[in-house]
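Lab channel / #folding
Pinned by the channel admin:
"Please post every new chain as: sequence first, then the structure tokens as a reply. Keep commentary short and put observations after the output so the thread stays searchable."

First post following the new format, from NK:
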Amino acid sequence: MTLIDGRAVAARHKAEIARETRALVARGVTPGLAVIIVGDDPASRVYVNNKKKDCAHCGLLSEEYALPDDCAQEELLTLIHTLNRRADIHGILVQLPLPAHLDEKAVLPAIDPAKDVDAFHPYNVGRIMIGDFDLVPCTPAGVMALLDAYGIEVRGRSCVVVGRSNIVGKPQAMLLLHRHGTVTLCHSRTENLADVTRRADILVAAVGKAGLITGDMVKEGAVVIDVAMNRGPDGRLVGDVRFDEAAARASHITPVPGGVGPMTRVMLLRNTLTAARRQCFPDEVCP
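Reply from TO:
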């Protein structure tokens, strides 16, 4: 069994992004990311702080806009529209979840699709569906980068994604399909789930239910990617997969933490760099 080391792969990507950023700065463009956080959710604050550190490490400009928990929706939308017009800001991210009184369905589409580095705008979602995209949700993009890093072929293989969220499950299924995988999209209400997962050569778990995937649900020799991050009874981070049980059967498996999580963060940097190139040098083909 091979442990998929997300931290090591992310470090290599960061070094690559830093080199590409320096080359872009030499041409007069510093990729700029604006992060909007509403309220004081502790987990969101940790994520935002980590994103700022990542940007600084790779040479990207990072600006934070912290709004109070009770801010009006119009105030948030006005800020987004202002950032949309700024030439030095190439990526805009609204940290989720938002307070209950704010309408996510109105907020996310307000972001210019060219600056939508989370790739949640309906325009970018549609481009992922047809396979003609520049920006991809960070977690599914990170999963694909891990498969590439370990030389795991998707073409022709049975791929099962457990989880149907707009953020992970649905785009993950499309990315695997675009790589010519034969994809089954499941969820927590799928009947006889184990019968489906046992057919998977590549199994991606992204429901958010600790221990949902047991060892007997994993095909011998399967690649197991655990996207979820749940808090166990003892406060430790755990995934959807019962790691020890699945590791006994898998050929490759991601740990939690240290698997997909670091890749999610680094793909945000990649999306910001891609957005900067597209906006400043639209006639060039991005690498």
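NK: The domain at 138-261 is CATH 3.40.50.720 (Rossmann fold).
TO: also worth noting, Residues 217 and 278 are 43 Å apart (CA to CA).
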